[in-house]
Amino acid sequence: MKIYFFLIIFLEILFSKSAFAYFITIDAYDRECFFERVEKGTDLVLTFEVSEGGFLDIDIHIVGPDGKMMFQSERETRGKYAFTAHQGGIYRYCFCNKMSTVTMKEVMFDMAVGDVKTNIEQEEDSQDEQINLDNKIKDLRTALTGVKHEQDYMSRRDLIHRNINENTNYRLVLWSFFEAAVILVMSVGQILYIKRFFEV
């Protein structure tokens, strides 16, 4: 029975739906929209983060298939929004950079699409055990997918902070060379100025 259980878990993980993180660049005063077709009862999780540009803020909104605004936020740096599809159809999520007139923004995001929730009820005891086992496997797969998304999110955050640190280090090195050059020029200037006093 344990071998059967682990085999099912392995197959569920192997064939589970995966999510990919995307990097997009949104020009100043522009908007980028993406679409996801799902069935009613599907779990959706949108995570995003602005990695470059301006004050690292972006406007976001999610619209359902019926045209109803499900989520709207302005000037967000990062966020995570989870919801269950209230009806089947195409869901649209847009990132807007309308508030910026000069700066383009780089946004990392991913939309994790889960499984459709179904309630299967059987009367036989042997099938109840199988259903309970299947439900536990689905819960485990959902939890593992959540952990994977969190790890992806943390690795993206690490990448962003590493880029910020490298950029800051590069600027400090340039500033150090600039300071050294200024000190050298000032020293030579002072030597020439003082030397002029002693010339007859």
Automatic annotation (TrEMBL):
Key word Signal present in the record? yes
- Residues crossing the lipid bilayer are 172-194
Listed under GO cellular component are: endomembrane system; membrane
The primary location reported for this protein is: membrane
Its localization reads: Endomembrane system; Membrane
Q: How does it sit in the membrane?
A: Single-pass membrane protein; Single-pass type I membrane protein
Extract the InterPro entries matched here. Answer: Emp24-like (IPR015720), GOLD_dom (IPR009038), GOLD_dom_sf (IPR036598)
Signal sequence span per UniProt?
1-21
PROSITE patterns attached here? Answer: GOLD (PS50866)
The UniProt record lists the GOLD domain at 31-113
Which keywords annotate this record? Developmental protein, Membrane, Signal, Transmembrane, Transmembrane helix
- Pfam families, A to Z: EMP24_GP25L
Q: Name the family the entry cites.
A: Belongs to the EMP24/GP25L family.
Q: What is this protein called?
A: GOLD domain-containing protein
